[in-house]
Amino acid sequence: MAGESASGPERPQSEFIIRFRRNRNAMIGSIIVALVVAAALLAPWIVPYDVEKVNMLTVWEPPGEDFWFGADALGRDVFSRVIVGARVSLLVAVSVLAITLTVGTILGMCAAYFGGWVDTVIMRTVDIIFAFPELIFAILIAAMLGPGKLTVIIALSIVWWPGIARLTRSLVLSLKSELFVEAAIASGTPVHRIMRRHFLPNIIAPLIVRASIGVGFIIMAEATLSFLGIGVQEPEPTWGGMIRDGLSQLRTDPHLALYASLALGITMVGFNLLGDGLRDILDPRVRDR
Amino acid sequence: MVGYAMRRILGLVAVWFIAVLLTFIAVQFVPGDPILALLSDRSGDPVLEARLRAEYGLDRALWVQFLDYLGNIANGTFGLSFRFAGTPVIDVIAGGLTISPVLALVSIAIAVPLGVSLGVFVAIRQNTWADTLVILILVAGISVPNFAMAAFLVYLFSIKLGLVPVAGWGGADQLILPVTILVIPPTAYIARLTRTYMLEVLQQDYIRTARAKGVRERLVIYRHALRNTLVPLLTTIGIIFGGLLSGTFVVETIFNIPGLGRMAIESIFARDYPVTMSIVLLFTVFYSLINLIIDLLYAALDPRIRLDAGES
């Protein structure tokens, strides 16, 4: 797709890899993210125990040879639940990204391309959602729909697409006056073709940066909603839910809260480092300094 | 400037109206009949049911209910609670009314000067070990969610070292951990932005000119560079404030602080939707007011903003 771009010379891919290798943040971040993704994908094969199986004989078992991270209030293996927790977090993040990138990019391009009332309707909707603090809007939706994984995905998608739409709109607005776009319009190229072949390849880099930074936000938001009890529900393991259960037991059995917090913290650092690194590499304004 | 302010205030009123409308619709959508829940064990009593329905105005047309809702917001009662029969929402939330906003304001009052000083500190030491170390800590401070941070801090400082109370509200020592946890993420965020902006500003020609004509380094940093860093920083205060308001939900839940955030969450579980929605509404109003003040300040400081806004 990028090869079809009419925007002049594309940055060769090897240059991206060289820059990536030289960027310490991007390297450390990508290693952490790779480990988390691997754990999430391989979870069914690497977890030693069934994450939902209750065992009253091992309630609050401290960390040891049988249970590396100990066991929780229902005797379930914390290590297994932390690993599967990565799967739940990433599943939510990938779903929200897929929805918001699709909706946000299409609406952003439409707003910029058509202008007029289309632009007004889309951008005023964006403004309204921006007028609420993100998490509080998500809580409002969670209260309406009732807790659950689907609610989290819907709530976070609603609060996150406006950012993508606004970014896309501003990028496309500046592209619209480029000669190659004017030529395409003048020669009667259909709208969807202009969007796919002229806009999309030229806005993909900033969108990737935005998405990579967004993954961190989405994982944090999912964990927060689950921590508050209005996100993903038991018995499915989530880091947020495990930290909430563990906090009440911090004095006698700190392992649950601490290991779940560690997993969430390291994952967040990984995604943020990768996002920062990608921004430095792909954003020419920062890069050329 | 006056025109710009008027436009922004009109926009604010529109946002408030939509927030009111959204919370009203949200209450219509929630599952279950609140009156049947209120009746619970006396659900066979049709007279009582009819009386309660009339008291809550739920027997009237939807648009009348909406007007009622507007009226209740205007007279400051925010309607009646579903959990505490016949009690106005304002009486339920009165105790927490000041706690969450004060927590957020205190946190930002600490985070801004702390973050800016830290940012300047590392910016003028770019690429030294101190810079690298502080950046690592800042990345962790921004990345680690506040409740995960709370797990470590409570375990270390309350349980292992016994320095501060585990939870509670009222004493000054009970404020230390919650405020620390609220302050860390915005401080780290502000410090990183300050560093980036400072490094950008320090490359400008007027800084070179100032140095060339022999202005002392302290003055170059604080008078020439920092001042130009503060203006773009101002715009991010709104985002930071939103994060802090959300943070109070978490921190109040962890530390058993009887603020609005914890009440909102509790009332979701108690299906007391009028209370939840009133709190959502109050937070939105508070948040949008802060953003309005920041926008007006920004427009006053930077004339280009109000010109741009006038054109679009």
UniProtKB/TrEMBL annotation, chain A:
One of its GO terms (biological process) is transmembrane transport. It comes from Pelagibius litoralis. It is a multi-pass membrane protein. PROSITE patterns: ABC_TM1. This is ABC transporter permease. It is found in: Cell membrane. Residues 86-275 form the ABC transmembrane type-1 domain. Gene3D superfamilies: MetI-like. Belongs to the binding-protein-dependent transport system permease family.
From TrEMBL, chain B:
GO terms for cellular component: plasma membrane. It comes from Pelagibius litoralis. The keyword Cell membrane applies. SUPFAM superfamilies: MetI-like. This is ABC transporter permease. It is found in: Cell membrane. Belongs to the binding-protein-dependent transport system permease family. Gene3D superfamilies: MetI-like. Keywords: Cell membrane, Membrane, Transmembrane, Transmembrane helix, Transport. The keyword Transmembrane applies. Residues 97-298 form the ABC transmembrane type-1 domain. One of its GO terms (biological process) is transmembrane transport. Pfam families: BPD_transp_1 (PF00528), BPD_transp_1_N (PF19300). The chain crosses the membrane at residues 9-30, 102-124, 133-155, 175-194, 230-255, 275-298. Its main location: membrane. InterPro entries: BPD_transp_1_N, MetI-like, MetI-like_sf. It is a multi-pass membrane protein.
